[in-house]
Amino acid sequence: MSAPLNHNADYRARHGLRPVINVSGTMTSLGASIIHDDAIAAMAEIAPQWVEMDDLQRRASAVISRLTGGETGFVTACCAAGITMSVAGAMTGTDMLAIEQLPSRTDGLKNEVILQLGHAVNYGAPVDQSIRLAGATPVLAGTATQVMPYHVENAINDRTAALLFVVSHHTVQFGQLSLEEVVEICRPRGVPVIVDAASEYDLTGFLARGADLVIYSGHKFLSGPTSGIVAGRKDLVRAAYLQNKGIGRGMKVGKESIAGVMAALEAWEKRDHAGIRAREQAALDLWKTTVDAMPGLYGKIMPDPTNNPLDRLEVHVLPESGFTATGLAKALAAGDPPVIVRDHEAELGFFFLDPCNLHPGEAEIVAKALTAVMNAPRPENAMALPRHSVEKALRWPD
Ligand SMILES: *Cc1c(COP(=O)(O)O)cnc(C)c1O
């Protein structure tokens, strides 16, 4: 492949930023997405223009409805903002005074949100904080590994504003109630079910299976700009949208992101999904062949844990390689160019190579980087163990 690489090389070089290659997935910490060309064009086009924002959001609502099957929708700053605004909307409805009084004054409002304990994850921040930001109290149901219907039934009372259901590889993948089971409990009791589907390809399934609201990140698989999409029942979407006159102000989305995500959604409808899968498969095959030829490494092609149409290569790192999984990930990240792998489970002795964010030619560069690192003398931290530490974060901006 001879397509040009790193089309922002100039920008990054000019600002002293490393030209990272992302094989870790759609990561906020690496800039969220490769924004689709159509979205970039829409953002550039609207940037110098005035526009009536409620009308732009009405147009976005129509596109969101078409793609999700939801009655109504709007765009916000990100999925986390969408969760907070949806929870707030479930609390306040269209009561403007209540909207202005969040998050500290919630007397008289329903202010509890149920969350299965195995769904209480951290996606860069704790999901329960997205609930608390609205002024609501998370009510954790069940245990991390087992939630029964009676846990959720007994958590519901007359202060229950909503139940938040999280779909993610981060959650405990067993022992939790399914969306159908949760809907069966909540619907007859009048409790809205809000689904956090930030990273899911399935734009219609959660509403079709009974969710009242569903929230996506615009900047994950959709390849939009950093943004969030809320879709579903009109009364709940309207109440969530009204939070822009309250706590949503600090989560403001710009016209450029609304236009960008609308274009990304339209591009998603036309995208050559089969062609993309074939390119991802070719990358996985190349990496598996490379890894399997190395002493102490082997690769397994694994399906996505939440059934997105995406496979990843699970690279097992045995001691005879001279590396731990963490040590090898660090060596790749220190390379030229830096290759950032998906290593959040490194204590289990493997990391993943994720093919969904590659520019043309980068799959080959990743294979070469692996070979180079394996053939070089072992660096000092080759046998490093994963450390759960905020040390580096605390030093920023130094
Ligand atoms: C990424 C993610 C979020 C946060 O999404 P943002 O759009 O970055 O705010 C929330 N929930 C889950 C499950 C995620 O994976």
UniProtKB/TrEMBL annotation:
Keywords: Aminotransferase, Pyridoxal phosphate, Transferase
Pfam families: SelA
InterPro entries from the UniProt entry: PyrdxlP-dep_Trfase, PyrdxlP-dep_Trfase_major, SelA-like
Molecular-function annotations in GO: L-seryl-tRNA(Sec) selenium transferase activity; transaminase activity
Modified residues (N6-(pyridoxal phosphate)lysine): K220
Record's keyword annotation contains Glycoprotein: no
Domain of life according to the entry: Bacteria
Cofactor requirements of the protein: pyridoxal 5'-phosphate
Coiled coil residues, start to end: none
Gene3D superfamilies hit by this protein: Type I PLP-dependent aspartate aminotransferase-like (Major domain)
SUPFAM superfamilies named among the record's database cross-references: PLP-dependent transferases
Family: Belongs to the SelA family.
Protein name (record): Aminotransferase class V-fold PLP-dependent enzyme
Protein's organism: Jiella endophytica
